[in-house]
TrEMBL record:
Its cofactor is Zn(2+). Residues 239-273 form the FPG-type domain. SUPFAM superfamilies: Glucocorticoid receptor-like (DNA-binding domain) (SSF57716), N-terminal domain of MutM-like DNA repair proteins (SSF81624), S13-like H2TH domain (SSF46946). Belongs to the FPG family. InterPro entries: FPG_cat, FPG_N, H2TH_FPG, Ribosomal_uS13-like_H2TH, Znf_DNA_glyclase/AP_lyase, Znf_FPG/IleRS. Pfam families: Fapy_DNA_glyco (PF01149), H2TH (PF06831), zf-FPG_IleRS (PF06827). GO terms for molecular function: 8-oxo-7,8-dihydroguanine DNA N-glycosylase activity; damaged DNA binding; DNA-(apurinic or apyrimidinic site) endonuclease activity; lyase activity; zinc ion binding. One of its GO terms (biological process) is base-excision repair. Residues 2-119 form the Formamidopyrimidine-DNA glycosylase catalytic domain. The lineage of its organism: Bacteria, Bacillati, Actinomycetota, Actinomycetes, Micrococcales. It catalyses: Hydrolysis of DNA containing ring-opened 7-methylguanine residues, releasing 2,6-diamino-4-hydroxy-5-(N-methyl)formamidopyrimidine. The keyword DNA-binding applies. This is Putative formamidopyrimidine-DNA glycosylase-like protein.
Length: 278
């Protein structure tokens, strides 16, 4: 699942490479991705891209007089090609399929891809990104330099809800998904099933610090990484997420996997639960 560090890197890449280019043609290959029927993606043909920015786990391509918002969903991403769409391009056998393609001036093309078995990606053409319902509901973003401890405490709110679920809840905290929530909890030494209401002051302090350190550190680490390599860099940087059966890099205990409440978590029993497997 794309999360804020990688999506931020993608938005910065697009702001640099796509800005100033005119959209010459649009080809939507999967019409279930179109979420604004009155303003389909083809309606941006002839418009010029003026920038790009991130909203949580969404990318906004800013155009003159409109915006194309891409909701990346669970398996969505983008592919930049230094060639026009009708030119032969060599892709690896496991490259995800393009669901939409945008021909840009300067013989460049941008493809929106989805590697999942079901379509979770969405394309919105709007006057303002806030018109996209999921963006309108986003909570404060820990990557934002203006993010405060009061906002973090407000997201937790003493709720009788598991911390891992709150970290991934976009209406509470924007941009964090399954992978980085595992990393945050491991760094904070907090169990994924702990309820927010049960956190003591020390645990809450560690969790706040770990959230900022993990999200902002990952954004810095992804800076300049080619967008087709961002996923690999993310996977390689994980300490516990996706590491079931491996040794914890902090204490050497074996990382365990836990499935609960419709999600899964990888965690270290010693670092996060007093040595007791969940």
């Amino acid at each position: 699942m794309p999360e804020s560090p990688e999506v931020e890197a993608l938005a910065r890449f697009l702001a640099e490479e796509a800005s100033g280019r005119e959209v010459r043609g649009v080809d939507v290959l999967e019409f279930r991705t179109v979420k604004t029927r009155a303003a389909p993606p083809a309606s941006i043909t002839g418009r010029t891209i003026t920038g790009a920015r991130r909203h949580g786990k969404h990318v906004e391509l800013v155009l003159d007089e409109a915006s194309l918002v891409v909701s990346l969903g669970r398996h969505g991403w983008m592919r930049w090609l230094d060639a026009a769409p009708d030119e032969a391009v060599s892709l690896s056998a496991d490259a995800p399929p393009a669901l939409a393609s945008f021909e840009l001036s300067g013989d460049r093309s941008l493809q929106v891809t989805d590697a999942g078995s079901w379509v979770s990606l969405g394309l919105f053409v709007v006057g303002d990104a806030g018109e996209v319902p999921a963006i309108a509901k986003l909570g404060p973003d820990p990557a934002d330099s203006a993010f405060t401890r009061d906002q973090f405490d407000g997201a937790l709110g003493g709720r009788r809800k598991q911390i891992k679920a709150i970290l991934q809840e976009q209406e509470s905290l924007a941009g964090i998904g399954n992978a980085y929530s595992d990393e945050i909890l491991h760094l904070a030494k907090v169990s994924p099933v702990t309820h927010a209401a049960a956190l003591d002051d020390g645990s809450a302090d560690r969790l706040f610090d770990a959230t900022l350190t993990t999200v902002r550190g990952a954004i810095d680490a992804r800076r300049g990484v080619p967008i087709d390599q961002l996923k690999a860099h993310k996977v390689a940087a994980m300490r516990v997420h996706g590491r079931t059966g491996e040794a914890c890099p902090v204490c050497g205990d074996i990382i365990r996997d836990l499935t609960f409440a419709g999600t899964s978590a990888q965690y270290c029993p010693t670092c996060q639960n007093g040595g007791v497997p969940l």
